[in-house]
Amino acid sequence: MHLVFLHEVGANNPLGVNSFGDRVSFHPYYSYKDLFGIVFVIFLLMFLVLIFPSVLGDPENFIPANPLVTPVHIIPE
Length: 77
Fold this sequence. Notes:
By secondary structure, the chain is an all-alpha fold.
């Protein structure tokens, strides 16, 4: 909402110069830029989740379990 009101009314500048001619309209320029950014981030996350799901996982999850050996982190009291 802040961006919508900022680009609707405009921001003040320290010199007090009227800058109505230098403004860029919020829609379509910023709307399409933000929409492209959101779609790009969602695409990257979906690519990571669907194609390479184990990239961010812990490497110890890939060690096969040995039922005859107690894990090191389990200590009897």
